[in-house]
Every structure is written in structure tokens, then in C-alpha cells.
Design a protein that fits this description.
This protein is an alpha+beta fold and 248 residues long. Helices cover 54% and strands 16% of the residues. It has helices at 4-8, 13-42, 49-64, 83-104, 115-132, 136-159, 180-189, 225-234, and strands at 106-108, 111-113, 165-172, 192-194, 200-204, 207-216, 238-245. Strands 3, 4, 5, 6 and 7 form a five-stranded antiparallel beta sheet that branches. Strand 1 and strand 2 form a beta hairpin. It is elongated, with a radius of gyration of 25 Å.
Length: 248
């Protein structure tokens, strides 16, 4: 029945206290997720602070609402779902959203894009779950924290020390035999190290193609990607090349 008391139950004192404690869980998960993500961001990996922070925070939100089941639907005692029922509903939602998230992640060579978009979609599904059970303040807090994470954490990543990764593809003249030591020396002289295990070599009509990732030692010492491209064009035996930031 639609009454003033029914609406007020969603914003009662105990309900706001419960939402506040959920908010503390969300903030703590966001900070810890970003801390783990910084290690990946520092080494130039595709998934960084934003992706880890969003996923960790959304996972905490899904988990913590189970402890506040008595506040679902404004504390109604005749709630349609039990705790076990809702867990199955949440599982189905997150599984379905996972397939949607997979569709926005794109990989081209060493470049991966869409990870943060996928994480934000997953986080949005959790916002919907919070709204669905009537934890409106927690849902608004998660939406705000997610937006702040996507907007400002990238700026924080740019301010913190990190090692930029660059994906390089080289095509050599037919018959030319490239030397790995020479490539590593060229990269080292410009503040980069060729990441171990990233070199991929192929042979096409007598011409060697080398693909690898070079990771900068620091932002201050690395050569700009434009200068690196100029040097690649002058490297002995190079017929053509493609260079791009590996993180996206």
C-alpha cells in the first residue's frame, strides 16, 4: 500500500546508518582495488587502477548487501525474496552482464581497449541490484564513486610514477637478418627495455616481422613516441613499422 510511512522507511535513521556502513565498505574496496591496480599500471599493463578499483568495489557491494537483508525493500517483513533467492538472482544478473562486458573488450596485437568500460558496465549492474533491493543511498554512493573513479583516477595514474609501454611492429627488408641485441641496444639508449616474453617473430615472403613491447624505465627518461618512431625509420633494414601505446 502506498503510504507516506512506506516511502519514509527507505530513508529512516537505521536505513541511513546501514547505507553509511555499506559506503565504508565500498570506499575501502575501491582504495584497495586501486592499490593492486597501480602495480599493473606502473608496469604498463592494460588493466590499471580504474579497472581494478571498479571491479573490487562492485564485488564488495554485491557481497555486503547480504549482511543487510533485513533492510531490503525498506525493511518490509514480507519481502518477496529470501537471501538465498536473491543470491541466485544476483548470480544470473552478473553472469549475463559478464557476456555483455566481454563484447566491449577489443584486442589488436598488444593493444587492449575497453577494459574500463567493461568494468563500469559490471559496476552499473551492481548499482541496479542495490536500487532493486531498496538500498538507494548505497546505490547513489556507488554510482558517484564509479564516476569519480573513471574521471579522476586516470589523472592520478598520470601523476603517479609509472612505466609507459609501447607496442612496436617492425617489418624488415627481404633477406635482412635482424639482431635482437641491436634492437635492445636501440631501445635501451632511448630509455626503454624490451619486455621479456613479448617478442613475436614471423617470416613473410622472405621478410622478417618482429612484434614486441618496449617498457619505459620512467616517464622522465623515456623518449617521446614521435622521436621513437623517427628512430625506427632510420634503423638498418627496416622497411616499415607500426608503433602505438600498448595501454588503452
Amino acid at each position: 500500500m502506498l503510504t507516506t510511512d512506506a516511502f519514509a522507511a527507505y530513508w529512516s535513521g537505521p536505513m541511513l546508518v546501514a547505507n553509511f556502513f555499506i559506503l565504508l565498505h565500498l570506499v575501502g574496496a575501491l582504495v584497495l582495488g586501486m592499490l593492486v591496480g597501480y602495480e599493473r599500471s606502473y608496469h604498463g599493463r592494460a588493466a590499471g587502477m580504474r579497472t581494478y578499483g571498479l571491479v573490487c568495489m562492485a564485488a564488495a557491494a554485491v557481497t555486503v548487501i547480504g549482511g543487510y537483508a533485513h533492510f531490503w525493500y525498506g525493511g518490509a517483513t514480507n519481502a518477496a525474496f529470501s537471501n538465498a533467492d536473491l543470491s541466485r538472482v544476483v548470480q544470473g544478473i552478473l553472469t549475463g552482464i559478464g557476456f555483455l562486458c566481454a563484447g566491449v573488450i577489443m584486442k589488436e596485437g598488444f593493444n587492449i581497449s575497453g577494459l574500463t568500460t567493461a568494468a563500469s558496465l559490471w559496476s552499473s549492474s551492481v548499482i541496479g541490484i542495490l536500487v532493486g533491493v531498496g538500498l538507494y543511498a548505497a546505490a547513489m554512493a556507488l554510482a558517484l564513486l564509479s564516476a569519480l573513479c573513471m574521471v579522476w583516477v586516470s589523472k592520478l595514474e598520470g601523476w603517479l610514477p609509472s612505466r609507459q609501454a609501447v607496442a612496436i611492429a617492425l617489418k624488415f627488408n627481404p633477406g635482412f637478418l635482424p639482431v635482437e641485441a641491436a634492437l635492445r641496444g636501440m631501445a635501451n639508449a632511448r630509455g626503454y627495455d624490451i619486455a621479456g616474453g613479448t617478442i613475436v617473430i614471423s617470416l613473410d615472403q622472405g621478410a622478417y616481422n618482429w612484434n614486441f613491447v618496449a617498457v619505459a624505465r620512467s616517464r622522465q627518461k623515456m623518449a617521446p613516441i614521435s622521436d621513437l618512431g623517427t628512430e625506427m625509420g632510420k634503423f638498418p633494414g627496416v622497411q616499415s613499422f607500426h608503433i602505438a601505446y600498448a595501454r588503452n
